């Protein structure tokens, strides 16, 4: 089991939380000590939320994992993989057809991203307007930490509502799918280019390794089946070679050896 | 609301966040898993584990096996996260003989197909258990996508399954509440299949994107400002570790799942075939217990409830729980009611 633990998510959430509190405080100050001017929140809140949406999902969830989850950004990697194009020497100095295809896909992706930004803007503005409207109906409070948390909860509720309304619409779903398909096509195209380059250096390609792996898998299965026929165990029963026990990461835990063990193994 | 006093609020909240972050640091090496188990069978990267009986369950250690099948998209140890939150432990305490399939990571190349998972891997586990227990059939418990696999297998090989329990299992993949289904309708499954193994982080991000502020912000803020004891922080970190410990997905299987289930809704429509064999819910005539959550944003309740109208069984029961998708495996309420419901239901049919 891998250890995907990271403090990034906690830190990012705390950072964003402080940013929101400062914005809330700014609205309070704008009221000059009397009733806060909540309407002044609309612009800053919308701007911050839009920025967060862009940062965390700028090319749809498929190929740009949310930064809040601490994940990598494959699209950026994909862009750098463009370096795997034909070497710009001699006839190859002209853009090769494969390179042209990658350029087209990158262009299309950029265009789709532009459309996505419009949705983020719409969501952010709708969320901020909804939040300000709700604030006017909220009961009075003293401005304590609990009040700040209540404001935060209200903000999340309004933001999720605005987000949910937009991302369920057919045009948004279609755009998401187009971005995902374009990103996938780009990765496939870049992989094809990389394979061409690898082949040019006389190295085995991923496709060739996959094919060999497939053959190896089939051969292993044949060997396992033949062994099974020799010892005639119950059909399709393949005990593992060694008992595998799980162990807690820090505290010890009782385990016991497998009752069955011997030949055969992972098919 | 009166003006917020930023200085006052910030001082107190900063203190709370600081002390909780220190607890999060302490929790980073929390223990995962609680019950002793050992591997008894494997195929490819799939391993079948047997759990040691517990308490009163020792008396019935040799009883009919219950084979638990989890989804491919997450690791199955969420079913045995810690002693207080362990569906498996509760089932063991109830005297059930538990086996669990761990699908592991897919083989290189991303070519493992759904039919292999269902027929060769799940089916291989069933055959192993039938042979080792000298039984014609076993009981299945499928969770989420593992429930879909269990349904498919039960429909294809009805004589090998005595009773079937499904938890948060989608059957209708196109219900109006299903945001995930809406997003994947336009996906090109051929391109998906060409990607090889798809990183687990990608699917994780997809799930977070269903409710990004709640799942990537609010839950952390609630933790950090909640003045929780160390034990509660430990629990949170355990869940986080599980949530983000996502195995890669075989591109071929993922593409088939997207196309056949989400885009074409074949299971519900009765048009699904695996390895050339028809998979018809009407062929599931075993007793079926269907458990699902009313606040599930991944598998909406209507998606699971659809099983009742399609399944061929005359002995069909269902029960709903006022919780979310993951709450079905780890919430206190689920721990109290679900294992008891399963063990009682199975006991009445053995």
What does this entry look like structurally?
The complex is a heterodimer of chains A (267) and B (350). With 267 residues, chain A is an all-alpha fold. Chain A has helices spanning 8-30, 42-57, 60-63, 74-81, 97-135, 145-167, 170-200, 206-231. The longest helix of chain A is centred in the middle third of the chain and has 39 residues, at 97-135. In chain A, 29% of the residues are buried. Chain B is α/β, with parallel strands linked by helices. Helices cover 45% and strands 16% of the residues of chain B. Chain B is built from 15 helices and 10 strands. Chain B has helices at residues 6-26, 87-93, 114-133, 145-156, 179-184, 189-194, 200-209, 212-225, 230-243, 251-263, 266-269, 301-305, 307-310, 327-330, 332-347; strands spanning 37-43, 46-51, 65-69, 97-102, 138-143, 161-167, 272-274, 277-279, 288-293, 316-321. In chain B, helix 1 packs across helix 9 (230-243). Chain B is globular and about 70 Å long. The termini of chain B are far apart. The mean pLDDT of chain B is 93. The chains are: A mainly alpha (267), B alpha/beta (350). Chains A and B meet through helix 1, helix 2, helix 3, helix 6 and helix 7 of A and helix 1, strand 1, helix 3, helix 5 and helix 6 of B.
- Describe the oligomeric state of these chains in a short phrase: heterodimer
Strand content of chain B: 15-25%
Q: What low-confidence regions of chain B span 5 or more consecutive residues with pLDDT below 50?
A: none
Low-confidence parts of chain A: 59-95, 239-267
H and E string of chain A: HHHHHHHH
Radius of gyration of chain B, CA atoms, in whole angstroms: 21 Å
Largest sheet of chain B: 8 strands, mixed
Strand content of chain A: under 5%
Termini gap of chain A: 21 Å
Structure class of chain B: alpha/beta
- Spatial strand order of the main sheet of chain B: 1-2-4-3-5-6-9-10
């Amino acid at each position: 089991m891998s250890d995907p633990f990271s403090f990034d998510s906690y830190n990012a959430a705390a950072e964003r939380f402080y940013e929101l509190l400062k914005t809330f405080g700014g609205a309070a100050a704008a009221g000059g000590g009397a009733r806060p001017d909540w309407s002044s929140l609309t612009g800053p809140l919308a701007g911050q939320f839009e920025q967060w949406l862009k940062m965390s999902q700028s090319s749809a969830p498929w190929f740009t994992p949310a930064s809040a989850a601490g994940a990598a950004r494959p699209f950026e990697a994909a862009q750098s993989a463009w370096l795997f194009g034909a070497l710009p020497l001699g006839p190859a100095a002209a853009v090769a057809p494969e390179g042209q295809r990658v350029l087209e896909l990158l262009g299309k992706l950029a265009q789709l991203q532009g459309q996505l930004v419009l949705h983020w803007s719409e969501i952010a503005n709708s969320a901020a307007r909804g939040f300000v409207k709700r604030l006017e109906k909220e009961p009075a409070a003293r401005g304590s930490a609990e009040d700040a948390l209540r404001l935060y909860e209200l903000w999340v509720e309004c933001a999720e509502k605005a987000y949910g309304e937009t991302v369920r619409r057919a045009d948004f779903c279609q755009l998401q799918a187009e971005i995902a398909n374009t990103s996938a096509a780009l990765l496939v195209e870049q992989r094809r280019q990389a394979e061409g380059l690898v082949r040019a250096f006389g190295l085995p390609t991923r496709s060739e390794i996959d094919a060999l792996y497939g053959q190896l898998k089939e051969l292993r299965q044949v060997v396992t089946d033949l062994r099974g026929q020799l010892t005639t165990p119950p059909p399709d029963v393949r005990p593992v070679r060694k008992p595998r026990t799980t162990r807690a990461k820090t505290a010890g835990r009782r385990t016991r050896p497998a009752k069955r063990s011997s030949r055969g193994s992972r098919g | 609301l009166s003006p917020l006093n930023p200085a006052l609020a910030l001082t107190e909240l900063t203190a709370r966040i600081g002390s909780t972050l220190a607890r999060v640091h302490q929790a980073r090496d929390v223990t995962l898993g609680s019950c002793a188990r050992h591997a008894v069978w494997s195929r490819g990267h799939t391993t079948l584990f047997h759990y040691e009986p517990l308490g009163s369950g020792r008396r019935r250690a040799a009883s009919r096996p219950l084979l638990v099948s989890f989804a491919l998209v997450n690791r199955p140890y969420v079913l045995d996260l810690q002693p207080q939150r362990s569906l498996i432990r509760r089932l063991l305490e109830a005297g059930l003989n538990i086996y669990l399939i761990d699908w592991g990571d897919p083989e290189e190349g991303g070519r493992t197909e759904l039919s292999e998972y269902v027929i060769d891997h799940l089916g291989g586990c069933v055959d192993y258990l039938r042979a080792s227990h000298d039984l014609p059939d076993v009981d299945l418990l499928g969770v989420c996508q593992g429930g879909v696999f269990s349904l498919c297998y039960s429909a294809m090989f009805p004589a090998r399954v005595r009773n079937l329990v499904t938890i948060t299992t989608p059957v209708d993949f196109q219900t109006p509440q299903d945001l995930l289904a809406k997003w994947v309708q336009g996906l090109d499954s051929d391109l998906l299949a060409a990607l090889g193994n798809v990183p687990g982080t990608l699917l994780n991000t997809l799930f977070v994107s269903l409710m990004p502020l709640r799942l990537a912000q609010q839950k952390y803020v609630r933790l950090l400002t909640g003045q929780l004891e160390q034990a509660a922080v430990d629990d949170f970190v355990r869940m986080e570790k599980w949530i983000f410990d996502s195995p890669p997905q075989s591109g071929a299987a993922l593409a088939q799942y997207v196309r056949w289930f989400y885009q074409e809704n074949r299971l519900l429509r009765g048009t699904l075939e695996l390895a050339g064999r028809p998979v018809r819910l009407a062929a599931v005539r075993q007793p079926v217990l269907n458990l699902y959550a009313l606040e599930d944003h991944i598998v909406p309740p209507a998606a699971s409830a659809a099983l009742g109208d399609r399944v061929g069984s005359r002995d069909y029961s269902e029960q709903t729980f006022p919780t979310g998708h993951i709450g079905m495996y780890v919430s206190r309420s689920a721990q109290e009611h679900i294992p008891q419901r399963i063990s009682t239901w199975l006991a009445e049919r053995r």
